[in-house]
Amino acid sequence: MHFAYPSRKSSNPPPFRPRQSRIPIPTLRKGRLKSIAVIATIIIGSFWIISKLFDSRDAPLFRRPSGNPPVVLVTVLDERKHGMGHSQSIRENREQYAKRHGYETMFVHAGDYELEETAGSWARTPAMRHALTNFPECRYVWFLDQDAYIMEPAKSLEERLLEPDLLGKIMRRDISVVPNSIIKTFSHLKGGDIELVLTQDFEGLSTGSLVVRNGEWAKFFLETWFDPLYRSYKFRKAEEHALEHMVQWHPTILSKLAVVPQRTINSYIKGNEEEGFQEGDFVVRAAGCGREGAPSCEEQLSKYRATWQQAFSQA
User: At what angle do helices 216-225 and 124-134 cross, to 10 degrees?
Assistant: First the structure.
């Protein structure tokens, strides 16, 4: 039996020819050009963003509102707890001051917002966020609790507090944000850096009279403050203790905070020389009024009602 041998290879093989790519050359070029274009776009975009961040001559990335109105004065009312007469006097007080300085007022009710099982005092937080929605061009939101009267109408809030040079002079630097805390207000901040202004009392931060500057930071701050996680903690002083927690643990908030002397915007009816109301003070508050066992807000503020009305009629 004969078996076929494999054919012998020729000693003169054909010349080498490279294997052709399955992908046409024009397609490869097109893909590479596309990749280069994407990379170039990313690089150029990165340089543009960096230049905007570090070039102070350009406009900020987030537009500042026009300032119309300059200030929205927000108050949460609870007629069932404090009575219609008291609520009406609070409305008149705010409206007269706002009209005098070209501001707007916004009155809401404690039951306007879904607070679930948390304290009614939490309503101030969505109320301020609501004000930013209703008045997107305002420059500031001033929350003033229903336990307070504005006593001196002549000067605007800007003249008393918010002008950057003035705020830079009166804001308290390098002090504990709450008693005995190692976390302190920053010492290098200037008045123009500030987005949130409030005061302290002998227990800690006070939220009965505070000012927030409208902008992206204000929205972030108010949404963070109203986070369900903080409300679920059941802090003893509800939103005030939640704010103290935020300020001590979040530099993003502490770096925009100014603590001013209490009598600037938050004098108490009862208190020592630093916090107690004195003739000529801007605001008087009956902090804690209406709580269980305490006199009503209307009762505690009754002697100041005629005083502010007279001051407004003469200014």
Answer: 150
Q: What b/e string do you get for 163-189 counting C-beta neighbours within 10 Å, with b at 16 or more?
A: eeeebbeebeeeeebbeeeeeebeeeb
pLDDT tens readout for residues 272-290: 778 899 999 999 999 988 7
Rounded to 5 degrees, φ, ψ at 237 are: -105, 30
Q: Give the mean model confidence (pLDDT) for residues 211-228.
A: 96
In angstroms, how far is CA 265 from the centroid of its own chain? 18
Q: Tell me, what's the pLDDT at 14? A: 55
> What is the mean predicted confidence (pLDDT) over 5-22?
51
User: What pLDDT is stored for residue 303 in this prediction?
Assistant: 92
DSSP labels, the chain: ---PPPPPPPSSPPPP-PPPPSS-HHHHHHHHHHHHHHHHHHHHHHHHHHHHHH-TTSPPSSPPP--SSSEEEEEEE-HHHH-HHHHHHHHHHHHHHHHHHT-EEEEEEGGGS--TTS-GGGGHHHHHHHHHHH-TT-SEEEEE-TTEEE---SS-HIIIIISHHHHHHHSPPS-BSSTT-S-B--SS--GGG-SEEEEE-SSSEEEEEEEEE-SHHHHHHHHHHT-HHHHHT--TTHHHHHHHHHHHH-HHHHTTEEE--GGGT-EESS--TTTB--TT-SEEE-TTTTSTTSPPHHHHHHHHHHHHHHHHHH-
Residue listed under structure tokens 């005030």: 240
Structure confidence by residue, pLDDT tens digits, 65-80 = 888 999 999 999 988 7
pLDDT band with cut points at 50, 70 and 90 for residue 41: low
Which domains can be identified in the chain, with CATH numbers?
Answer: 71-314 (3.90.550.10)
d(CA 205, CA 187): 18
Q: What is the largest CA-CA distance in the chain?
A: 134
